[in-house]
Target: RNA helicase
Amino acid sequence: MSTLTFWKPGTAGPGSTHDRETEEEGNVVQSAPSHGFLSIQAQRERLPIWQHRQKLLHCIEKYGVTIVVGQTGSGKTTQLPQYLLESGWASEGNIIACTQPRRVAATSVAIRVATEVGTLLGDEVGYTIRFEDVSDKERTRICYMTDGMLFRETLIDPLLSRYNVIMIDEAHERSLYTDLLLGILKKIRRKRPSLRLIVSSATLDAKAFLEYFTSGTHPDDATIVSLEGRMFPVEVAYLQESAPDYVRKAVEVAWSINLQHGAGDILIFLTGREEIERCLEELTELLPTLPRGATQIIPLALHAGLSTEEQLRVFNVAERGTRKVIAATNIAEASVTIDGVKFVVDSGFVKIRTYNPTTFLASLSTVPVSKASAIQRTGRAGRTSPGICYRLYPESAFASLPTSTPPEITRTDMTTPILQLKSLGIDDLMKFEWVSAPPAESILRALEGLFAAGMIGDNGLLTPIGERVAECPIEVNIARMLFTSKDFNCGEEILTIASMISIQDAFVIPDGAPGAIAELERRKFTTEEGDHLTLLNAYNAFTKYGRSSSWCKAHALNFRAMSRAVSIRSQLKKYMIRFNLPLQSCEGDAKRLRQCLVSGYWRNGARWVADGTYRSVKGNKTLYVHPTSVLFTRKPRTGWVVFHEVEETKRTQIRILSEIEPDWLLDYGHKYQHRHAAG
Ligand code: CDP
Ligand code: MG
Model:
């Protein structure tokens, strides 16, 4: 293992003003205090938020909106809803809601809080995320949910009358649905002033929220409560130059931390599942070379694709003589706190959704983190003792990072959100009180797209089909396919495809056989027509022969993901039945099926060019095929495809492709709507 050249400019980051605890590097120090021996109540009282309990309850009573700012780990998410429960805010059948931008956070926090409250999960404490409701209509008092779920609930119950208190957590992340909810909740509070709102944030930019909630309302309607955090100093080390392969570099750094430093867990920030898996694989390969007597390494992953049990493993306290090395996405940046982390290795990158309204291409791109994120990640090393953060880039690169990440609403496809806002009766989008307004271009393109797809009419109002599509818990383009399947007699198959693309990673790479076997296994399902039909085949084989984890393993399918697809399918099926959409089978007529796909993906057309890349129909952008596609090494026979989504890494890659005839883009795209509107 090469020696690492890190330059340490000295202690920095949050908490640097605190006294540094004496500790000799290199010696085995006591492992970070595990609170396992304390009673739950004692653990709760140790959290920084405990000191502020009375004040918080007082403010929530007095003010309509309480903005709570406190460092990650101070107890906002787990404790505040409990304080409210204990002081009677959930009496008379009322519910306390707490929203999270991430599914993983909603589930893991609900599990923790159910334990603290001493109830079964789904009873007094529950959670709801898309396609998964672990709550009880009568008994649940505290409900954690994704922000998207609560927003969707406003479509059914516009005043959110079930809730007494709503806590919008991790508001600093400014996720799309958090922003939309804040806008809607400001409106709701005008009609229902008794509703209490808590906006919680890990960063200090709470002023913006205060201004938002006091403008145009009573100035004394909102207040800020700051929780001073208990935080140890964290030393920051930079690389002298950026690493060409930060995953490999992260492995090297983690390895040398393990050899050079005493106890304390290591948290590595990477951008996604694939990187995390590669990082842990490379680390695992090194394990046999670990010198005798060295600290043992327990490699762990933390990302949204894991099962709940897998996620919870990161919270197990490492035994003496071992340390956890957790490779995580930015879930671990603020939403989830793992005590005992003493070393942070920060790749400096994050995957975010971006949208180009001119090309209609929404993509997941890997971009440098913001300064705010880098600092937040650094702080994760100082939760329970002083720590060190290794940034895998030079200090000069830090200086050039953007201050903060722009709110998601400014860089996302607004098609689905605008359809939902319209369904809520918010027709004048200019008058809506945005926390940050989306770019006019993005609103305009979304309206055009909705109009062309027949979701809004000439008068700018929702059409009957638009009303119904807004109710479906899936993206507009996929919902449109469900509705047009009626005309192509392929409801059964489209329903399956819609469910399969709602899950991620149906195909897995089995342990010890990277690539090859998975590829061979998948060939059994592979169809010439592309990935959508391949997914359909995999699903059908699963329900016919499989439904067991051993069968899935033998066929390189992800059992948990496949089971989720089955559950999603049965939920979407209920919508189809409610909307009178026939569940007919196309009986193997792949052509009709692909035509139906075009009715949803008509904005995602691409043309094959001789060098093996594609050009987008709109904007003529160069697109590469994602290596997981069955069309990765093959030219589509017709020369044309539609694709599900774009992923931006070093190049722009399209994922989940199907062959089409170019004429279909016109026939079943926007023209389709006019023909049907006439008929
Ligand atoms: O929301 P905030 O970041 O302020 O803190 P929190 O998520 O409520 O976490 C408070 C404490 O609970 C931290 O010390 C966490 O490590 C702990 N916790 C845990 O042990 N297991 C969980 N599943 C969630 C939180
Ligand atoms: Mg939290």
Summary: The longest strand covers residues 640-648. The domain at 231-408 is CATH 3.40.50.300 (Rossmann fold). The chain has four domains: 40-227, 231-408, 413-471, 472-678. The CA atoms of residues 189 and 410 lie 25 Å apart.
